[in-house]
Amino acid sequence: MDQLLINGLNVNYGPNRIIKNIKLKIKSRELVAIVGPSGCGKSTLLSAIVGLAQPVSGSIVMGDKILYSSMENINIAVEKRNIGYVFQSYALWPHLTVYNNLAFPLQVRKLKRQAIAKAVQFQLQKLDLVGKEHKYPHQLSGGEKQRVALGRSLIVRPSLLLLDEPLANIDASLKNVLLGELKSVQQELGITMLYVTHDQNEAFEIADQLAVMGAGEIRQIDTPQKLYTNPNSLFVAQFIGRNNIFVGQEVNKLRFCPRIRRQSNTTFTAVGIRPEDIIISETGLYTGTIKKVIYHAGRVQHTISISDAELLADGDFNGAHQVGQTVRFNIQRYHYIN
Ligand SMILES: Nc1ncnc2c1ncn2[C@@H]1O[C@H](COP(=O)(O)OP(=O)(O)OP(=O)(O)O)[C@@H](O)[C@H]1O
Ligand SMILES: [Mg+2]
Fold first, then answer.
1. pLDDT tens by residue, 183-224
2. pLDDT for 20-57, tens place per residue?
3. In testing the pocket of ligand 1, which one of 10, 35, 40 has its CB within 8 Å of the most ligand atoms?
4. CATH class of residue range 4-229
């Protein structure tokens, strides 16, 4: 329920600065997803919010409660922060069954046995774990462990929930179901949520705001749509989605499309064209040759070669073109990157 406000946060591991001057606001009931290359500091940021990693400076405020402030010398203990946290490595209690892993946070809070049983049953059903309640973590698959970890953090109905790759080991069809569940639980209970994922599709589907991290910094935060259409830097343009990017002088490779350069009287670093904005059609203005065809679920990606440029272009799965074929195409949209 509470909003989260992070200001000027710095975290070191040994001599290395891992989190660099991070400023982040998550409004009450909002879901912010974080994506970024491996090792950029996503898990470290969550650890600092929950109180497991010690920052060197900055502040973390949840609702009207200061969790950490270097200026005011405040550092609330982990167990007093009341934040739900699903670790990247699940961190289940190995000596407890699924049932007791789920029940534990409620037992600690001294709820009545019946109330606990009811809450555990509810989570078991929601997370498709019915029949597994008497198993121990080592008897579960990676995806099942992850679902237990998710259930354990949801069962206490936290006002802030931090999730670190909660669906990483779950197969695509169940992932879709759980992602939908997670979003509806978040909305129903009004949980403020910070969600770290490697999977951009997941992030796009679930996030109100999407943050892209690189080397310990938040490089851009926006709605997923804005981030996709208006990346603020080459880093974000390259990281989010697929993109045909022409940096600096490489833009000359697009001279077959003079419109692109004519409009570029301002300085820019690069030009990006999304593969879905290259439309192959018999009435297209430009002519190229198909170099490569890759099939994905439900779509096909062509590589078109034209003079000295190569362009990824999406196509109709059922109307895919052949390698070597000549095709006509249009560039429907492109963006300048600063
Ligand atoms: N306990 C630790 N001690 C020292 N260095 C650490 C520790 N934990 C992480 N690091 C380093 O901090 C950096 C950021 O790690 P972090 O786990 O936050 O990355 P990440 O963005 O979560 O990556 P991934 O996507 O692979 O999970 C890495 O360079 C990592 O090696
Ligand atoms: Mg991580």
1. 887 888 788 999 999 889 999 999 999 999 999 999 999 999
2. 999 999 999 999 999 999 999 999 999 999 999 999 99
3. 40
4. alpha beta
Residue 193 CB burial class (10 angstroms; 0-12, 13-18, ≥19): buried
Ligand 1 centroid distance, CA of 17 (Å): 11
CATH 2.40.50.140 in the chain: give the residue spans: 243-337
| Half-sphere exposure of residue 146: CA atoms within 13 angstroms, side-chain side | 18
Q: Which residues contact 187 (CB under 8 A, 6 or more apart)?
A: 29
Question: Cα-atom radius of gyration of the chain, to the nearest Å?
Answer: 24
Query: Which residue has a Cα nearest atom 6 of ligand 1?
Result: 13
Per-residue pLDDT of 98-142, as tens digits, reads 999 999 989 988 889 999 999 999 999 988 899 999 999 999 987
* Region 243-337: CATH code: 2.40.50.140
- The ranges of the chain annotated as CATH 3.40.50.300 are 4-229
Per-residue burial over 5-31, b = 16 or more CB atoms within 10 Å of its CB, e = otherwise = bbbebbbbeeeeebbeebebebeebbb
What local confidence, expressed as pLDDT, does residue 262 receive? Answer: 63
CA–centroid distance, residue 65 to ligand 2 (Å) = 26
Q: Which amino acid appears at position 25 of this protein?
A: K
Inter-residue contact 30 to 208 (CB < 8 Å): yes
